[in-house]
Amino acid sequence: xxxxxxxxxxxxxxxxxxxxxxxxxxxxxxxxxxxxxxxxxxxxxxxxxxxxxxxxxxxxxxxxxxxxxxxxxxxxxxxxxxxxxxxxxxxxxxxxxxxxxxxxxxxxxxxxxxxxxxxxxxxxxxxxxxxxxxxxxxxxxxxxxxxxxxxxxxxxxxxxxxxxxxxxxxxxxxxxxxxxxxxxxxxxxxxxxxxxxxxxxxxxxxxxxxxxxxxxxxxxxxxxxxxxxxxxxx
Length: 234
Prior knowledge:
The chain is an alpha/beta fold. It is 35% helix and 24% strand. The longest helix has 15 residues, at 113-127. It starts with a helix and ends with a helix. The model has no long low-confidence stretch (mean pLDDT 90).
């Protein structure tokens, strides 16, 4: 797709079919979580089924921050489905207790991390369009929300087009055919990837999330997801 076509589709996204039937896409959807809220930063913490202890630790530490300098922060955990029924039961209990878990209908596995990014970007666009910025962070990360908000506040005059994180420079495609992340020359012939933000943690403005969602849904993904996002936005 051409850049202008992508941006046009992103501006005109109609998410009503997803909003009206969230159970088609999510086991746990929290569809009203953002309703009526002013949200400066939506934090989506990518966690794994069975990691309830780590989630609880985050809830009690940096995830407990709900505002910085008066700017509201809203934190949710992003999961895929577990392999075990007993683990699902534990997730259901945690969700009922905390109302902060989004669970996609896909199996949470290394092979499905692209689906996870698509699903959670979709959720942010469909159910939390009032969030100015969206943070995607792995559960192993510790986020200094005060410092992050200070930085984002400096961008308030330029809310659109924001995509920031730890930049990976001159990364090379994996050419090992036995690797899960193998990228053949026929799919990506260049020696290096363009600069992109590490998937461990990055921030997008709402318009960028719209653009990423459009492309992730319509273009074949032949490189790692974080690389692909960087290619889309470079």
